[in-house]
Amino acid sequence: MLMTAPASVPSSGMTSITEAWHSSLYHVTVIAPWNWNATKEEKRARYADASSAIDNLRRITPDAAYLNEADVYEPNYQVAFWGSHYPELLRIKQKYDPDHLLDCWHCVTSKFQHKED
């Protein structure tokens, strides 16, 4: 957990981050390390462990996550990462990058959002 709560950081509300972040009391990070020579299956299992470890917290809190430190399997990631900003971000993405030249896992309208590798 961060020592300074996200709610302590003033915001103009003009960034893409979910508005829920600015009223959050804590930023909780779960890690699941693996050995340097872990197999693909072992890595997937560790990711799944980390994801399930945070599920109880998800059940009692609003969807809110910081994209750069979020669960790779974040459910409802559009809301968790961007909140009410998502529709406008989607409009901008479709206008300026309709062919997904710039893309990543769980990005706005990602072509990778359902791929597992």
Automatic annotation (TrEMBL):
Any one GO molecular-function label of the UniProt entry: flavin adenine dinucleotide binding
Domain of life: Eukaryota
UniProt cross-references to Pfam families, sorted A to Z: BBE
Organism lineage: Eukaryota, Fungi, Dikarya, Basidiomycota, Agaricomycotina
Matches recorded under Gene3D superfamilies: 3.30.465.10, 3.40.462.20
Source organism per UniProt: Agrocybe chaxingu
The protein's name in its UniProt record: Berberine/berberine-like domain-containing protein
Berberine/berberine-like domain sequence ranges: 65-101
